[in-house]
Amino acid sequence: MKNRGFLLSDVINQKRAVQHSRGKRAMLIVNPRARRGGGSIDAARQVLVDAGLQIEEMATSKDENASELISRNADHFDMAIVGGGDGTLNNAAAGLSYSGLTLGVLPLGTANDFARTMGIPADPVKAAEIIAAGHQATVDLGEVNGHLFFNVASIGFSAELAGELTEHAKKRWGTLGYGIVAARILMRSRLFTCYVDHDGTTEKIRTMQVSVGNGRHYGGGMTVEETATADDGWLDLYSLEVDHWWRLLRLLPSLRKGTQGQWDDVRAFKTTEVTIRTKQPRPVNTDGELVTWTPAHFRIRPKSVNVFVPKG
Questions:
Q1: Out of 47, 53, 154, 292, which could bridge 128 as a Cys pair, Cβ 3.0 to 4.6 Å?
Q2: Residue 97 host element (H or E)
Q3: What is the per-residue pLDDT across 235-263, written as a single tens digit (0 to 9) for each?
Q4: Mean pLDDT within 122-131
Q5: SS in 3 state form for 47-62?
């Protein structure tokens, strides 16, 4: 009887998903360069079709990125389903915010940190089931120098990591690739000086990395701040002001939990707007992509994108 009840529940939920989705049109954008982007997503696609969605697969090109593709075609669709990693989502952020289309996430990348933040399973089929169910949440976006991001933007160590972590390394080693390249960069890292303008104050600091987070996770499972969410209306800044690489190794457990702000040599605070200036221009990494340089002006963009998420 227990098994029968479980099966009946599944049938009821499937019928509700079909009722929600029937006749709705979805553009599907899959990044073939994502770690799992070259594999088959036929099973995930079938889940969406079975739910009543009309799927049209579209491709970016050298002349049109994901945001431009979404913006140009938004009037013909009810949602945009993006298959890829955090960099792919970053590429689509502006188009999603501009068009108002609801985002469906198929995690096909290396880290899939935004999916982890939102509780979306790494299995594309299970992620498709969430899209089909139709439950939505509205999330914030971060912005730096006009570039939008879902997870985190960093200056210093993480930006160097993004610059050296090749697509080949990501596909071959997965999240282990982050550790391999990070260890090499860590051995040569040095503190740099920057000026942090926020909430009417200016602080001069010496740091290895400054990170400004909108979401909760980044960098293959690191946590910006243990209580952070993608819809709390805040940016979470932390600065690693450690003077020896072995101190950073001691910090790793806290960086994974998001409790690094409790350490004396980590500066951490919440804000809605902050500017970071450096003596020499430094690259800024947003969701694994190098998109701009310091001086970097950050601000929160509240309630910017609707996303299909697990219910409850």
A1: 47
A2: helix 86-99
A3: 999 998 887 666 777 777 788 888 888 87
A4: 96
A5: HHHHCCCEEEEECCEC
Beta bridge pairs of residue 271: 235
Which residue(s) pair with 210 in the sheet?
155, 239
Residues of the chain with pLDDT > 90, as a percent, come to: 64
Alpha-carbon distance of 150 to 137, in angstroms, equals 14
Number of structural domains (the chain) is: 2
Distance CA 295, CA 66 (A): 26
Together in a domain, 151 and 125? no
CATH of the domain at 283: 2.60.200.40
Are residues 311 and 137 in contact, defined by beta-carbon separation less than 8 angstroms? no
Give me 281's structure tokens. Answer: 């221009």
Cα distances (Å, whole numbers) of residue 105 to 82, 120, 121, 157, 172: 5, 8, 10, 28, 23
Of 116, 140, 164, the residue that ends a domain is 140
Query: 287: which DSSP letter?
Result: T
Domain limits at 109?
2-140
Distances (CA, A) of 92 to 22, 84, 87, 102, 150: 25, 11, 9, 12, 10
Q: Where are the alpha helices (DSSP H) in 199-294?
A: 245-257
Cα separation, 196 vs 199, whole angstroms: 10
Q: How confident is the model at residue 71 (pLDDT cuts 50, 70, 90)?
A: very high
Token pair, residue 273, equals 């707007």
